[in-house]
Amino acid sequence: MDKIIIQGGIALSGTIEASGAKNAALPLLAAAILVDGPVVYHRIPHLRDISTMMTLLAWQGADVAYDDQHCLHVDTRNASKSEAPYELVKTMRASSLVLGPLLARFGHARVSLPGGCAIGARPIDMHLKGLEAMGATIEVEQGDIIARVDGKLQGAHIVFDQVTVTGTENLMMAAVLADGITILDNAAREPEIVNLAESLRALGAKINGDGNNRIIIEGVDRLHGGEMTTIADRIEAATYLAAGLITGGDVTVTGISPELLEAFLARVKESGCLVEYGDDFIRCKAQGRLKAVDIHTLPHPGFPTDLQAQFMALMTLADGTSVVKETIFENRFMHVQELARMGADIRLDGNTALVTGCERISAAPVMATDLRASASLVLAGLAADGETVISRVYHIDRGYERIEEKLSKLGARIKRHSASENWMKGVQSDV
Ligand code: EPU
């Protein structure tokens, strides 16, 4: 298995371009199932989860082909399988995003139930309840969800008990071809939801209210082919901005609107850094040691849980103690023990971490446990004295496109080694 090796202590500076967002591209790709015509996708990132979704669509019978590096053509008109088998779903929880579209298109769907996950149990009960409210019957058999509907799904008024991003996307997609009007209340407001709604509207869907907590969808008979463009990856962009800050540097990310990162940028400013932006770029520059700042994760527009680990890495070197509260996932502190191995001073109390900044952290062999936890270890490695070796980096590859290349462009000394090269004798390979 690959490892990433970082020689820390170099201030990063320069400009890089944001990639398309994984969490926006995944629902856009699932939406192809609803479309009666070819779809051309722009700004699709090269990531493992994206390849998995492409494989799933191709397995269902869709034509899927890359045009150039980030432009993808998908045509599901010949797709005939309304299933998502375990072998594919087990590697990517977001495969459950095909449930709503498959049910809307075929009237039945068999999708393997995603198992637990490193960051929490992550059930999909609200997705299923919503589909039931739209007239589907749902059974679980041999680990698969089997959903059926007689005729078409029916519009319904659905109130989510808790804000769910993929739940909102799944039901929005199911409702697009349903009979009548669907109202989603307590809907997620993430920019990825707006990206999906705008894209579906361009293909003939009738959706209103996206970006607010009430979304209203009027079902239509068909969606026609067209184009979809993925928004910038706000989590990736913020991770690179944080890489500049944690090393005392100055990084600009282009191809992203600052509106996508308001909560993050507000905390960065509060910590004493310079933040500059225009319509299509964000620059963050460290101005001396960062001040400790508290964060509290919340659904959008609150501070994103997907940046909690990275912000915590920043706080390990800040002046003072910061309180990091995680309210979205029950087990999203897996990076804490690894950061502690690098000398960070972090005390955990339930869903709260008290991070007392130290003057320096030191390199250590650490292990990536999930996607964003891995990103926090990369940040810590960039700031640490000495050489940090991060193993199990397949987690990083799920969400960061060409991470070594992008960080190298900013001046980082980072390289990847494949375990098969036997690059370091005496280091145990992952099992
Ligand atoms: N939840 C339920 N029941 C449901 C659905 C959600 O109890 O039916 C709970 C979850 O367990 C969690 C909370 O509700 O405690 C919110 O989960 P949500 O459904 O919003 O998460 P998700 O849709 O599964 C997406 C992103 C995650 C991101 C979260 C929160 C995608 C593909 N994934 O997950 O991204 O953390 O929203 O913003 O969009 C990542 O990229 O690293 C990542 C984990």
Structural commentary:
Helix content is about 30%, strand content about 25%. It has about 425 residues and is α/β, with parallel strands linked by helices. It has two domains: about 5-20 and about 230-420, UDP-n-acetylglucosamine1-carboxyvinyl-transferase, Chain, CATH 3.65.10.10; about 20-230, Alpha-beta prism (UDP-n-acetylglucosamine1-carboxyvinyl-transferase, Chain), CATH 3.65.10.10. Helix 8 (about 235-245) runs parallel beside helix 10 (about 310-315), helix 10 (about 310-315) packs parallel to helix 12 (about 370-385) and helix 11 (about 335-340) runs parallel beside helix 12. The protein is elongated, with a radius of gyration of 22 Å. The protein binds uridine-diphosphate-2(N-acetylglucosaminyl) butyric acid. The site of uridine-diphosphate-2(N-acetylglucosaminyl) butyric acid has 23 residues, from helix 1, helix 5, helix 6 and helix 12. The site of uridine-diphosphate-2(N-acetylglucosaminyl) butyric acid (EPU) has 23 residues, from helix 1, helix 5, helix 6 and helix 12.
Termini separation comes to 9 Å
Question: Would you identify the regions where 5 or more consecutive residues have pLDDT less than 50?
Answer: 421-431
Could you give me the name of the CATH homologous superfamily of the largest domain?
Answer: Enolpyruvate transferase domain
Shape verdict = elongated
The Cα radius of gyration reads 22 Å
